[in-house]
């Protein structure tokens, strides 16, 4: 009997232990389902964010073609920027607590307006660029808030990373658009955008799930409590300098990227390809700097010291760009401006999101994107020179330096030490 029981036990062990080892090996080597879903979701969100970056700079790259075709003055061309970024600002305002609904609405608007722009004329282009901007604002704000929700305790670095993806799309766009500039029409360009946005819309409707939202958030409960406390205890008055910083940083970035192709083409008198490559150089500087500061280097230097250095660098680079006469100096100052202005907005945004976690705060950046490119075109027309129109981004860069000492006054309730760096 003892031998029989022993034999049975040994046989059971030989059968059970390999199965147990196989389960352990599977758990060790195969990613968990939530982690895999999160990784795929972040990847697609990053691609969508990169595509919104490309969509944002598209108007600036094709502007010389539209101006020549429709005989637009700089003031009217600046009004196109105003409409697009006004739509983007309203998209940020309209993004509510349901991030994924806003994301889907944004992609739907982008797909519809891309299709309409493929067949648009002069008069229909104005409202269509507004709706295109509205879609961009919804998609960009929803994506940023989803990432902020997931990584509350590592928000600054992850915002730099997602904005690196945005900048990668914005950098690639001028180069990828060059072949379309020589065509008789821009219809193929907008039809390609249509196909890409339809694909993202299908993914957001069929795959993205609300359950991913809280997956793998280190310290998410504590971060949520901190955000709630800050929302209740930090008055809007103390947010205003930071919101103004966000407005100016986006204003400088959009003004330079939007007008740089036209600026270089007009004063250097070279082909559109060379002018578009100058814009790509500016965007490459943004990409590189956001990539650098998406690492642990940001924590090592400290966010406030990084902000101070970048603000001075931005002011110097933009003034140099406006004053430059030599093509090489224009290219060099454009690249330097991109390096300095790139991390500014996500960095300022990380400070704001520690104090308030709402979609409307992204409207501050939208106001800058509306105001300063339009002012650049308006000043160019009124003063008779686009070089003088560059006073607008120069003024925004100077204003940021004046705002910095006021930006961190007020209560610092509940902030961990790492957040105060």
**Average pLDDT level:** 79
Query: How many helical stretches?
Result: 17
Strand content: under 5%
**CATH homolog superfamily:** MFS general substrate transporter like domains
Kindly identify the CATH topology. Growth Hormone, Chain: A
CATH architecture: Up-down Bundle
Give the helix/strand class: mainly alpha
Q: Care to count the β-strands?
A: 0
Describe this entry's structure for a reader.
Helix content is 81%, strand content 0%. It is mainly α and 421 residues long. It has one domain (33-420): Growth Hormone, Chain: A, CATH 1.20.1250. Helix 2 crosses helix 6 (155-181) and helix 6 runs antiparallel to helix 10. It starts with a helix and ends in an 18-residue tail after the last helix. The relative contact order is 0.14. Mean pLDDT is 79; it is low at 1-17, 20-31, 213-233 and 413-421.
Short structural summary:
This protein has 421 residues and is an all-alpha fold. It contains 17 helices and no strands. The chain has one domain: Up-down Bundle (Growth Hormone, Chain: A).
Which terms would index this structure?
mainly alpha; 0% strand; 81% helix; disordered C terminus; Growth Hormone, Chain: A; disordered N terminus; 17 helices; 421 residues
């Amino acid at each position: 009997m003892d031998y029989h029981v022993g034999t049975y036990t040994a046989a059971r062990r030989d059968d059970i232990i390999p199965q147990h080892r196989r389960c352990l090996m599977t758990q060790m080597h195969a990613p968990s389902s939530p982690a895999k879903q999160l990784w795929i979701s972040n990847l697609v969100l990053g691609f969508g964010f990169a595509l919104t970056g490309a969509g944002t700079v598209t108007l600036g790259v094709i502007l010389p073609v539209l101006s020549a075709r429709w005989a637009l003055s700089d003031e009217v061309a600046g009004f196109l920027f105003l409409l697009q970024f006004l739509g983007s600002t309203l998209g940020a305002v309209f993004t509510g607590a349901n991030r994924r609904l806003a994301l889907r609405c944004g992609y739907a608007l982008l797909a519809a307006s891309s299709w309409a722009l493929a067949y648009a004329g002069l008069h229909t282009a104005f409202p269509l660029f507004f709706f295109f901007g509205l879609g961009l604002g919804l998609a960009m704000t929803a994506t940023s808030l989803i990432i902020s929700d997931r990584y509350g305790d590592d928000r600054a670095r992850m915002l730099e990373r997602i904005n690196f993806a945005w900048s990668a799309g914005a950098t690639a766009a001028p180069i990828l658009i060059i072949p379309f500039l020589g065509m008789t029409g821009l219809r193929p360009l907008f039809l390609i955008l249509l196909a890409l946005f339809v694909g993202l819309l299908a993914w957001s409707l069929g795959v993205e799930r609300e359950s991913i939202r809280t997956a793998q958030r280190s310290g998410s409960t504590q971060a949520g409590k901190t955000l709630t406390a800050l929302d209740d205890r930090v008055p809007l008055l103390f947010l205003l300098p930071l919101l103004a910083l966000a407005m100016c940083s986006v204003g400088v970035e959009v003004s330079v990227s939007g007008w740089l192709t036209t600026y270089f083409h007009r004063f250097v008198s070279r082909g559109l390809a060379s002018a578009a490559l100058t814009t790509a150089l500016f965007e490459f500087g943004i990409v590189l700097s956001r990539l650098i500061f998406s690492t642990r280097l940001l924590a090592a230097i400290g966010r406030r010291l990084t902000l101070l250095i970048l603000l001075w660098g931005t002011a110097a680079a933009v003034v140099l760009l406006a004053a430059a006469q030599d093509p090489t100096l224009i290219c060099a100052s454009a690249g330097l401006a991109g390096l300095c202005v790139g991390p500014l907005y996500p960095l300022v945004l990380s400070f704001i999101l520690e104090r308030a976690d709402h979609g409307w705060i992204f409207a501050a950046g939208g106001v800058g994107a509306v105001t300063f490119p339009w002012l650049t075109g308006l000043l160019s027309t009124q003063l008779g020179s686009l070089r003088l129109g560059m006073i607008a981004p120069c003024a925004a860069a100077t204003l940021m330096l004046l705002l910095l000492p006021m930006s961190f006054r007020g209560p610092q309730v509940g902030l961990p030490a790492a957040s105060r760096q």
